[in-house]
Amino acid sequence: MNILLMLLPIALFLGFAGLLAFVWSLRNGQFDDLDGAAWRVLEDDPADRQ
């Protein structure tokens, strides 16, 4: 029972930290262009053509 008194606050803190990280990433535009990176992988780099 004593371990629950320690694990519960740790789990709540980690969950809240993850939620804050997600909200921060939303506000900073991390999820604005989801398809752009996928298409950039397929494009040729002009520097490689030499």
UniProtKB/TrEMBL annotation:
Pfam families: FixS
Domain of life: Bacteria
InterPro entries, per the entry: Cyt_oxidase_maturation_cbb3
Name of this chain's protein: Cbb3-type cytochrome oxidase assembly protein CcoS
The gene coding this protein: ccoS
